[in-house]
């Protein structure tokens, strides 16, 4: 790919320049192109486009919903994962669909290859790609009428100027990145890659506030030196469920690999405890929900063992490397080797790359608008880890929004903002820009007030038409996606209408073997479907029996039938959720919280993070609690109950 697109771009003016070819940058460039902007993606190394810096997996609880939303908005991540996935599993299947988390293990090589193919082949004639490092941003000073300065271009490290109306900066962990391993600390954005200091200095010149965070990655293992016979396998779903709404199946459906489960031992914990003094000191907060093994041993001294998932990094044809999920560390290499070998099945294991930590600058995201546009300088948008988030999916979701908005802004068109009630992406951005970040932000479904309606299964139904109306999807280029979602929406609407038109007595429904309340009140087919739920073919069996009984119901494909059952099941709960939200808005925000409320005692009701933050801040009202970083929608519902009880 090198040289294919390495153009001299100095003579052109771009609507949008995207800096960084990671997960946020690729999506931002693609989104800007879909809006119709002349777009340039500049990244330090073309061969690292689509690199997964840490775990070789996409999705999970909350994160999987983000991937589906990215896909519904036309983004790349879901389609790339469907090409590269080697094990697909929907997490939380035993719970309700609202918290299902589609996830896949990816082959790193295939993932990168697929992302590069999308970026180089599919972004169209308005797209250019350049291998270079961006050193500075060029700004036109504020006019005599005042107002913030405005971007006019980006200055490359070699001195060339690229003229642009807007820029989306997605430099991940590269801003003044420092790599830490044992007693060594070197400048770097990621292992083997240079950091980016100049952009950090530009931000400081603009008065943008920066702070520091830290994240880490585990050592990588040689799978040929692991005793697999001693480890419990975990298989994927069969058949695998694709991420993308455009796909009926995934590329590697017939060659799925297994992960394996291992556990740390007393010996592991002893090794880590004895080596605590050798852990490198760091400045920023680390991810609470992806802590190092050192932190886990320190924070949970009573825990006998921690789970370690051994995840293949790809097919044997590409790699024998295994990713040990759960033992991220930057302890010295000798300690890492000993701690890995203290785990059952890994006694003879060889390390192929040490774990390490990276600390880096990020921009306090409260300085951004909901479009991810920096307030203090026009034309500068930020997305991804630079905004204090962690994770590929969080980065990709911001990339779509920032890229689309940069393109819309450059064209003088209305911005595209998603509300908290519409999308998990909306929750993510709103949390960032209103609450801010003091530790890496990760998405959870519990952060969303509307988690019953903001689900992974319906992301296209929620977002695709919205995106089309805002010009974020291209009517011609995305015609297949739009046609598919319209057909699905129509089928669901018609089936719901047909079921609502059927009204029968409880005695009639009882002939179906259904325990409908015998109070004589007639029930519609929709009511009955809602009560059957989605369990084990219950809905499908009901619909079949209704058809056999002669009721006029449209024929539905199995996926639509499954979706119909989900919609019916959540319908009454979502209605209640609306009433609850309206109640919270109307008076809950002003409700005082009991002054003597012992947050520490609310185990099982609030998360550790919520108990910690609430106990420290002691907010006086529900509204004040809602503004605190880390306090989720689920947590607020708990607080509302306590506040009402004390009224
Ligand atoms: P990246 O994917 O980092 O992409 C940044 C891009 O910007 C790169 O392509 C880089 O070359 C380019 N770039 C930087 N500076 C310039 C410049 N001046 N000019 C041009 N291009 C530039 N996530 C988790 O969810 N859990 C974890 O445990 C976890 N651990 C991690 C551990 C490590 C060591 C690292 C490095 C990352 C870890 N991540 C983890 C984070 C995950 O990799 C990121 O969240 C995700 O990649 C962020 O995407 P991004 O697009 O914001 O940035």
TrEMBL record:
Entry's Pfam families?
Answer: GIDA, GIDA_C_1st, SAM_GIDA_C
GO MF annotation list: flavin adenine dinucleotide binding
Q: Which UniProt keywords apply?
A: FAD, Flavoprotein
Domain tRNA uridine 5-carboxymethylaminomethyl modification enzyme C-terminal subdomain per the UniProt entry, residue ranges: 568-641
InterPro entries found in the cross-reference section: FAD/NAD-bd_sf (IPR036188), GIDA_C_N (IPR049312), MnmG (IPR004416), MnmG-rel (IPR002218), MnmG-rel_CS (IPR020595), MnmG_C (IPR026904), MnmG_C_subdom (IPR047001), MnmG_C_subdom_sf (IPR044920)
Write out the GO cellular component annotations.
cytosol
Tell me a GO biological process for this protein: tRNA wobble uridine modification
Cofactor(s) needed, names only, are: FAD
Q: Which Gene3D superfamilies match?
A: FAD/NAD(P)-binding domain, GidA associated domain, C-terminal subdomain
Q: Which family does it belong to?
A: Belongs to the MnmG family.
Q: Which PANTHER family match?
A: GLUCOSE INHIBITED DIVISION PROTEIN A, PROTEIN MTO1 HOMOLOG, MITOCHONDRIAL
* Name of this chain's protein: tRNA uridine 5-carboxymethylaminomethyl modification enzyme C-terminal subdomain domain-containing protein
């Amino acid at each position: 790919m090198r040289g294919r697109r390495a153009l001299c771009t100095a003579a052109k003016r771009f609507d949008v320049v995207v800096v960084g070819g990671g997960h946020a940058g690729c999506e931002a460039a693609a989104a800007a192109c879909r809006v119709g902007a002349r777009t340039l993606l500049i990244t330090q190394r073309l061969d690292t486009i689509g690199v997964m810096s840490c775990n070789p997996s996409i999705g999970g609880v909350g994160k999987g919903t983000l991937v589906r939303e990215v896909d519904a908005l036309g983004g790349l991540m879901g389609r790339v994962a469907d090409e590269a996935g080697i094990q697909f599993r929907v997490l939380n299947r035993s719970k309700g669909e609202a918290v299902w988390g589609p996830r896949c293990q990816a082959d790193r090589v295939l993932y990168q290859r697929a992302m590069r193919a999308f970026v180089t082949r599919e972004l169209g004639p308005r797209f250019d790609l350049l291998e270079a490092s961006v050193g500075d941003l060029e700004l036109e000073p504020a006019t005599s009428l005042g107002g913030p300065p405005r971007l006019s271009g980006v200055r490359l490290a070699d001195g060339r100027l690229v003229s642009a109306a807007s820029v989306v900066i997605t430099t991940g962990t590269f801003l003044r990145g420092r790599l830490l391993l044992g007693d060594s600390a070197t400048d770097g954005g990621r292992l083997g890659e240079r950091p980016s200091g100049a952009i950090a200095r530009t931000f400081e010149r603009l008065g943008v506030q920066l702070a520091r965070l830290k994240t880490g990655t585990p050592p990588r293992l040689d799978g040929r030196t692991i005793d697999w016979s001693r480890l419990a396998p975990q298989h994927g779903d069969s058949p695998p469920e694709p991420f993308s709404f455009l796909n009926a199946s995934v590329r590697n459906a017939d060659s799925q690999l297994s992960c394996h489960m291992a556990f740390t031992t007393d010996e592991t914990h002893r090794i880590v405890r004895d080596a605590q003094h050798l852990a490198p000191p760091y400045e920023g907060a680390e991810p609470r929900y992806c802590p190092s093994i050192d932190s886990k041993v320190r924070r949970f001294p009573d825990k006998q063992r921690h789970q370690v998932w051994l995840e293949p990094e790809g097919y044997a044809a590409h790699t024998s490397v295994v990713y040990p999920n759960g033992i991220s560390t930057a302890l010295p290499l000798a300690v890492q080797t000993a701690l890995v070998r203290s785990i059952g099945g890994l006694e003879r294991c060889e390390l192929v790359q040490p774990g390490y930590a990276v600390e880096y600058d990020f921009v306090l995201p409260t300085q951004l608008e909901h479009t991810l546009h920096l307030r203090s300088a026009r034309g500068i948008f930020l997305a991804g880890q630079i905004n204090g988030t962690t994770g590929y999916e969080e980065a990709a979701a911001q990339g779509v929004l920032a890229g689309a908005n940069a393109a819309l802004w450059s064209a003088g068109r209305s911005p595209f903002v998603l509300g908290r009630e519409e999308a998990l992406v909306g929750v993510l951005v709103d949390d960032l820009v209103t609450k801010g970040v003091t530790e890496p932000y990760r998405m959870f479904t519990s952060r969303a007030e509307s988690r019953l309606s903001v689900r992974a299964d319906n992301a296209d139904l929620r977002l695709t038409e919205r995106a089309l109306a805002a010009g974020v999807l291209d009517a011609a280029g995305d015609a297949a996606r739009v046609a598919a979602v319209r057909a699905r929406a129509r089928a669901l609407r018609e089936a719901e209408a047909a079921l609502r038109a059927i009204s029968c007595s409880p005695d009639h429904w009882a002939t179906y073997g259904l325990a409908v309340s015998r109070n004589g009140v007639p029930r519609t087919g929709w009511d009955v479907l809602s009560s059957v739920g989605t369990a084990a073919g219950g809905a499908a069996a009901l619909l079949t029996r209704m058809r056999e009984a002669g009721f006029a119901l449209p024929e539905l494909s199995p996926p639509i039938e499954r979706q119909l059952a989900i919609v019916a099941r959540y319908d009454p709960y979502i209605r209640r959720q609306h009433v609850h939200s309206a109640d919270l808005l109307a008076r809950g925000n002003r409700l005082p919280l009991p002054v003597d409320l012992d947050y520490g005692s609310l185990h099982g009701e609030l998360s550790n993070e919520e108990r910690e933050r609430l106990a420290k801040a002691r907010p006086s009202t529900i509204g004040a609690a809602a503004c605190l970083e880390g306090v989720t929608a689920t947590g607020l519902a708990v607080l509302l109950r306590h506040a009402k009880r004390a009224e």
